[in-house]
Amino acid sequence: MNSTVAAIASAPGVGAVSLIRVSGPEAVEICGKLLRCKLGIENSAERYATLCKVVTADDVVIDEVLATVFKNPRSFTGEDVVELACHGGVLVTRRVLERILDCGARSAEPGEFSRRAFENGKMDLTQAEGIMDLISAQTDLAMRAAHEQMQGKLGDQSEDLREMLIGVVAHVEAFIDFPDEDIDPDTGAAMLKRIDEVLAGIDKMLATAEQGRILREGVRTVICGEPNVGKSSLLNGLLGYERAIVSDIEGTTRDTVEEVVNIQGIPLRLIDTAGVRSSEDVIEMKGIERSEKQIELADLIIEVVDGSKASERLLTDEMIGKRSHILVINKNDLGVSDKWSGADGVKISCSSEGGLETLGEVIADTLMLSENAWGGHAVAINARHQECLKRGRVALVAARESLEIGVGAEFSALDLRDAVEAIGEVAGRVDTEEIFDAIFGAFCIGK
Q1: The pTM of the whole model exceeds 0.70
Q2: Cβ 12 vs Cβ 447: under 8 Å
Q3: Which end of the chain is more exposed for a tag (fewer CB within 10 A), N or C?
Q4: Residue 246 confidence (pLDDT) above 50
Q5: What pLDDT does 13 receive?
Q6: Report for 91-105, 265-279, 336-350: range of highest mean pLDDT
Q7: Contact at 8 Å (CB) between 51 and 64?
Q8: CA distance 391 to 430
């Protein structure tokens, strides 16, 4: 934290502009050694871009850049920050960064700028994670959830629960220190009520875990069915372009094809599988085995049947289990067989793309992730938040049981402290170095 760090903050490759970020107590001084400006970098107006030349130690010009100074604490990291917008060539950007390092800065570690912002109180841990969610968002819904998290709403929710518990802990520990002052029934009932309120708040946050996983990772969606029912055509229709080969020859698809698509604001990891049937072809049998494996791993199964024929379904209810399942009755343009006319499925025609919009709506409703179903959920927790909240819930239930049966305030106090610490870890209110390393280590260099 006492050193000054620098890194390229824009994406790698060739572009019009590259951004280099320098942060730390000597950021302005270091940049002053390599920048030639009309007024000098030290005297440049804060938050105003100044046209400067980057020069070598021998005063040879490397590039012409726009330099912007952000004084602490009014910067992203809470430290002095200088951002250099240079030309976007790979070589020139590297040379400018090397010059900054030669003048006394060191290369930033992955996520170090965001970590400094966290440690300087510019954001909590959930807001830092929201940055990564925003960068990796693949749909509007995921982007909206990331924005809400960056605004601190998830951190505020967890902090409200933590503060409620701190009051309970203080009361119990006061009783331990002053045993002669007994807890009267009314006070004990009030404490149990407060614990119940915290438990309800935890359960409400835990209920968003599956939605959060889907928004961040996508829904593993397997398109399956017998050969030549239109699985690859459906994949192409949902993607909006021809990704998979389509033909009337059975067994054309012999391996799984995977692509990501945005359906009703939900990222779907679409997996087109080989048609499942009895076969003696070694290669096709291998594809069928992979299809069966993908069906077992799916979050959502889209089973396709040929609606113009009186064929049987591929999957039984036992094979589907508790996973989400949608029956798609394809080839609606060829007429619908009596077998499928009253079936509970989505009737479509991949050749004319009829019914695909309806299928998208059914997918959103099935997953309970439509805009209406999402409703007022500002944010959704991730796997780390879920683990913290589950630990907090276990400790809180134990504390409640101890208070209710009166086995000893000391036992309740220990469990309550564990609950406070676990809930505090959501927003980073405790000093857990390993957690910080794991989170910020996943960031890209320069963020």
Answers
A1: yes
A2: no
A3: N
A4: no
A5: 84
A6: 91-105
A7: yes
A8: 15
For domain 5-116, the CATH superfamily is Probable tRNA modification gtpase trme; domain 1 (3.30.1360.120)
Contact 251, 279 (CB under 8 A): yes
Residues 266 and 363: beta-carbon distance below 8 Å: yes
Please check the confidence at residue 339 and state whether its pLDDT lies above 70.
yes
Helix extents (H) in 178-265? 185-206, 209-217, 231-239
Look-up of token digits 């130690």: 57
Instruction: Name the token pair of 159.
Output: 């902090």
Task: Please name which of 172, 289, 166, 291 lies closest in space to residue 223, comparing C-alpha atoms.
Answer: 291
pLDDT digits (tens, 9 = 90+) for 78-130: 999 999 999 999 999 999 999 999 999 999 999 999 999 999 999 998 998 99
Predicted confidence at residue 433, as pLDDT, reads: 58
Cα angle, residue 228 at apex, residues 226 and 233 outer, rounded to 5°: 110
Backbone CA torsion sign across 179, 184, 188, 194? negative
6, β-bridge pairs: 22, 107
Which tokens in the block code for residue 291? 């299809």
pLDDT of 317 over the 90 cut: no
Specify whether the CB–CB gap between 364 and 373 falls below 8 A. Answer: yes
CA-CA distance, 341 to 163, in Å (whole number)?
A: 58
What's the CATH class of domain 127-208+381-428? mainly alpha
186 pLDDT higher than 50: no
Q: Are 327 and 305 in contact (CB under 8 A)?
A: yes
Query: Is domain 216-374 in CATH 3.40.50.300, yes or no?
Result: yes
User: How far apart (Å, rounded) are the C-alpha atoms in residues 209 and 315?
Assistant: 28
For the chain, the domains span 5-116, 127-208+381-428, 216-374
Q: Look at the block and give the residue holding tokens 């954001």.
A: 123
Rounded CA separation 292/69 (Å): 58
